[in-house]
């Protein structure tokens, strides 16, 4: 599996780069800073994908799954960024549906990372996995239903917030938080701690975007997209980089 991933890393990166190259013909205006941020970040996602896949080769066995999952998070985001960029550059509209599809795939994968890194070093129950997954799905489905007008916008927001609160409870005070504090070596504790602060502070940007951009109409499309784009760099690439750092540290820095 890992050998396969390794041999696939470069071709995959090349493949995901193709639609990017193809849509270069659309014509990016020099003053379209949101469009430029879509471009820069799509390339960062491609680079991060290749990097994390290749690094699976530099860490010990139990960390390979976390890094491979992290690479997938960036790969899925990269492809969505190509599409979102195209929507933005050609129409100037906010690519809401693509954002949610991206979140629906990448956010559960990131939540699963909490479980995988705990399971790599300690015995933990599968309940952690399911609770994090369910909390994530409630948060995103409610948010989408609210934003797409299937349900009342405020109801979607409040149920979404409840899903997020449930996740935060699990990783700070629930079984996952306790397992991290009691059963894990220092490198994992540090990673877990940084990751949960990303989920607290970094993630807060999205409900704020929903509130100001959608519920109250206080933020325009330019502001909203630029903020979401920057948030994604922290919440995806930096999030996985934290896992990578812990993996390298607890693998002794080389293949073990
Ligand atoms: C890479 C993308 C990430 C980490 C996206 C995260 C998205 C959220 C944390 C969204 C949260 C929302 C709520 C907490 C309330 C309802 C509205 C949402 C879906 C925007």
Structure in words:
With 256 residues, the protein is mainly α. It has a single domain, classed as Rhodopsin 7-helix transmembrane proteins (Rhopdopsin 7-helix transmembrane proteins, Up-down Bundle). Helix content is 82%, strand content 0%. The chain is built from 10 helices and no strands. α1 (2-22) runs parallel beside α3, α2 packs parallel to α10 and α4 (96-121) packs across α7 (175-183). The longest helix has 31 residues, at 61-91. 41% of the residues are buried. The model has no long low-confidence stretch (mean pLDDT 90). The structure holds retinal. Residues 103, 106-107, 139-140, 142-143, 157, 160-161, 164, 203, 206-207, 210, 232, 235-236 line the site of retinal.
Strand residue percentage:
under 5%
Q: Categorize the overall geometry.
A: globular
Number of helical regions = 10
* Succession of helices and strands: HHHHHHHHHH
For the record, what CATH class applies?
Mainly Alpha
CATH superfamily: Rhodopsin 7-helix transmembrane proteins
Q: How many β-strand runs?
A: 0
If you consult CATH, what is the topology?
Answer: Rhopdopsin 7-helix transmembrane proteins
Give the N-to-C terminal Cα separation.
17 Å
Helix content: over 70%
Small molecules held by this entry: retinal
Q: How many discrete structural domains?
A: 1
């Amino acid at each position: 599996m890992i050998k396969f991933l390794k041999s696939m890393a470069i071709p995959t990166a090349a493949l995901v780069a193709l639609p990017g190259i193809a849509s270069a013909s659309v014509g990016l205006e020099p003053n379209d800073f949101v469009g430029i941020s879509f471009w820069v970040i799509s390339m960062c996602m491609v680079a991060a994908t290749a990097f994390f896949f290749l690094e699976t080769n530099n860490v010990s066995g139990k960390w390979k799954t976390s890094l491979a999952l992290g690479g997938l998070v960036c790969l899925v985001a990269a492809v969505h960024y190509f599409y979102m960029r195209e929507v933005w550059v050609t129409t100037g509209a906010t690519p809401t549906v693509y954002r949610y599809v991206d979140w629906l795939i990448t956010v559960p994968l990131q939540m699963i990372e909490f479980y995988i890194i705990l399971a790599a070093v300690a015995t933990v129950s599968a309940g952690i996995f399911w609770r994090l997954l369910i909390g994530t799905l409630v948060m995103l489905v409610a948010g989408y239903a609210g934003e797409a007008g299937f349900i009342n916008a405020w109801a979607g927001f409040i149920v979404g917030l409840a899903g997020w609160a449930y996740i935060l409870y699990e990783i700070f005070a629930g079984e996952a938080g306790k397992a991290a504090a009691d059963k894990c070596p220092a490198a994992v504790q540090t990673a877990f701690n940084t990751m949960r602060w990303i989920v607290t502070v970094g993630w807060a940007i999205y409900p704020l975007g929903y509130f100001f951009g959608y519920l109250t109409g206080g933020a325009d499309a330019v502001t909203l997209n630029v903020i979401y784009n920057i948030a994604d760099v922290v919440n995806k690439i930096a999030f996985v980089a934290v896992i990578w750092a812990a993996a390298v540290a607890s693998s002794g820095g080389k293949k073990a």
